[in-house]
Amino acid sequence: MKEQERGETENDQAMKLAPDEDLMLEVRNGAGETLGVLFDRYHAPLFSFYAKLTGDRTLSDDLVQEVFLRILKYRQSYEPGTPFRAWIYQIARNARVDHYRKTPRHITFEPEMVAPVMPKDSAQQSEETELLHRALMQMPEEKREILVLSRFQELRYDEIARLLGCELGTVKTRIHRAIQELRQNFKQLERGLAPREAGPAVVKNIPPRRFGNEV
Amino acid sequence: MKCEEIGELLPDYLQGSLKAEQDNLVEQHIAECGDCREEVAIWKKLSLLPVEQPSAGSRERFEAMLRAYQTGRNDKVTGVERSKRGSVWNWLHSPVGAVAWSAALLVIGIFAGNYFGNRTATRSNSGQDEIAAMHTELANMKQMVVLSMLQQQSASERLQAVSYSRREDQLDPQVMSALVHTLRYDGSVDVRLAALDALSRHGAQPQVHKGVVDALQEQQSPLVQVALIDLMLEWRDPDAAQRLRNFVQTPNLNPTVKQRADWALSKLN
Predict the structure, then answer these.
(1) CB contact under 8 A, B52 and A157
(2) Residues B198, B166: contact at Cβ < 8 Å?
(3) With an 8 Å Cβ cutoff, is A14 touching chain B?
(4) Distance between the two ends of chain A, CA-based, in angstroms?
(5) Which tens digits make up the pLDDT trace of A186-203?
(6) Contacts of A129 in chain B (CB under 8 A)
(7) Can you name the residues that pair with A56 across neighbouring β-strands?
(8) Average pLDDT of the segment spanning B36-40
């Protein structure tokens, strides 16, 4: 019995160190419980990705669950050698697009908005953070997404290019434009001028779903 | 160097992937150019934004999903067998079915316990206590059935829930308030009338009393209004006269209802 227990702990430790791709191959071969390790690694970053994109906690929680359900459902489509991070973000993006297809924004319930937690350093800094948060949320989702992916999810530009299905150069250009827009929004907010509302435009700005490599 | 050229380098600069030479170029430029400097600054400031944390129950939800998924997969193997008794099985898996099923098992347990208890003639006090506890648990189960059935979409199921609740002499406060809620807001007149009927036996409970009396002003259906007036008369509610006097002033009141209210007023005075 003890032997077995020790065996399990060693196995657990090995799993905790294993690369994502190896774990995903185990899941693919039927070891559903191994997905738990991947869940531990990815659910918080995915939640933050969705929260920054949608501003809606409940929806973000639901979408994270949806991603892992899809991984189980479509695990056979995971090709050995595919970088797992790219794959899971592809699923995450599709899950969001599909959600908005089924439930256009105007008929969803009042979202439980994500209130930015203020750092307690100084009043000035917290005001700045608040403005920055608003400036980010005012951007159309498509532009916000590229910033979130690169700045918060810390994806490399080549990973983003693969994910969005565009050239590396295009990613860099779009990031630069997004930074410029964020800065404009922020400056306008600082001056107390609300820039044009992003509100209803948001739905239109969801990037088209990429076909091929579909999960 | 122009801002445009720097702009091309900027994303790589921000990720720290420029060669030293180009890195210096950008540094020199942003030292002189306020606009580009602000772009770099706002990127850096983004790190001030908090990282949203998922809800506490996230992991449990995931595990439940995983279990359900794996059970579902195993079940597919025996799926043919199951499909024959699909409807019963589905019912047993519905929330109402699950509660009813547990209640049924408990009943069987209690009867079995009583039976064997009597047979072996070892009815100690602790055994009786156990039976009492089981009875309480059974009552709770029934209440859960009522509560969950009151949430159902179909009016006939809600009607059934109300009639179940009538079998109990004592009502759980939660069931009572659910019935009062049903009386006030249920979409079906039949269900509202049944709820009123069920509540009529519990007029001694202040919670029920108030709920029923308050419901008069909100009711739109003449049938329910008449039933409420009758019940208030029956209960000899101290406020009944005052409430009815207000009620008959309601504009566009159904003539029959008004007649009934006037009649009740005459009885009360």
Answers:
(1) no
(2) yes
(3) no
(4) 42
(5) 999 988 755 555 444 444
(6) 48-50
(7) A113
(8) 93
**B46–chain A Cβ distance below 8 A for any pair:** yes
Amino acid B252: pLDDT: 83
Q: Which of A39, A114, A173 sits opposite B62 (nearest CB)?
A: A39
pLDDT tens-digit map of A14-43: 777 789 999 999 888 888 788 999 999 999
Query: Which chain A positions have a beta carbon within 8 Å of B10's beta carbon?
Result: 176, 179
> SS3 string of chain A?
CHHHHHHHHHHHHHHHHCCHHHHHHHHHCCCHHHHHHHHHHHHHHHHHHHHHHHCEHHHHHHHHHHHHHHHHHCHHHCCCCCCHHHHHHHHHHHHHHHHHHHCCHHHCCCCCECCCCCCCCCHHHHHHHHHHHHHHHCCCHHHHHHHHHHHHCCCCHHHHHHHHCCCHHHHHHHHHHHHHHHHHHHHHHHCCCCCCCCCCHHHHCCCCCCCCCCC
Which of B65-74, B115-124, B211-220 has the lowest average pLDDT?
A: B115-124
Which structure tokens are listed for A215?
Answer: 């999960």
Q: At CB < 8 A and 24+ separation, what contacts does A73-81 make?
A: A74/A215, A75/A24, A75/A27, A75/A28, A76/A28, A77/A215, A78/A24, A78/A25, A78/A27, A78/A28, A80/A21, A80/A25, A81/A21
* ipTM surpasses cut 0.85: no
Q: A-chain residues within 8 Å CB-CB of B49?
A: 52, 116, 129, 132-133, 136, 152
Condensed to tens digits (0 to 9), the pLDDT of residues B222-247 reads: 888 888 998 888 888 778 888 888 88
pLDDT digits (tens, 9 = 90+) for A46-99: 999 999 998 888 889 989 999 998 998 888 889 888 899 999 999 999 999 888
The CA dihedral of B147, B150, B153, B154, to the nearest 10 degrees, is 130
